[in-house]
Amino acid sequence: MSLVTLLPFIVLIGAMFLMTRSAKKKQQAAASMRNDMQPGSGVRTIGGMYATVKEVNEDTVLLDAGPGVHLMFAKNAIGAVLSDDEYNRIVHGAEASEDDGLTDDAVVPDDASSLIGADETAADDSRIDLGKNDKADKAAEAVEPAAEADVAADADKAADAEPKKTDGESDAK
């Protein structure tokens, strides 16, 4: 066989080797992170719950999710072990320190129009009033007596008509 026919197989085997190697590294890093947990560490479970490690066993972890709330989780259910600063910022809403790069000077827009550069006056003019319309209420009150009589006659006809079939009933025997 020539080298040209073997080249695609060699490339394929090399790519598979590199992918499995990077996946193994990620698994080893996650396992070492879970094994390095200490009581008092803040963690995030794979379900998104934040808690503090109370006790670490061989395959399980006892978490303190709040006052009087203790939960037993498998070690594999721990998604991340957080630093103390990050845990306090997320759970307790503690202020970010100066070296985090997060400042209170950031402006968060209340709508998306400022993100696309739309004119503010055009956005204010096109707002929709979702309030109750008084004209519709007045029109409903001004129903003619003749129309009320027609409605009453229709109701009498419906009462005299044969009742409709419900589920499970049929004419077939």
Identify the notable features of this structure and list them briefly.
6 helices; extended; 173 residues; 5-stranded antiparallel β-sheet; alpha+beta
Can you describe what's shown?
- This protein is of the alpha+beta class and 173 residues long.
- It contains 6 helices and 5 strands; from the N terminus they run αβββββααααα.
- It has a 5-stranded antiparallel sheet with strand order 4-3-2-1-5.
- A hairpin with a 3-residue loop joins strand 2 and strand 3.
- The longest helix has 33 residues.
- The protein is extended and about 90 Å long.
- The termini are far apart.
- 4% of the residues are buried.
Number of helices: 6
Which series of helices and strands comes N to C? HEEEEEHHHHH
Q: What's the overall geometry? A: extended
Instruction: Report Rg.
Output: 34 Å
How are the SSEs placed, and which strands pair?
Layout: H1 3-35, E1 42-45, E2 50-56, E3 60-66, E4 69-74, E5 78-82, H2 84-91, H3 113-116, H4 120-125, H5 134-141, H6 145-160
Antiparallel strand pairs: 1-2, 1-5, 2-3, 3-4
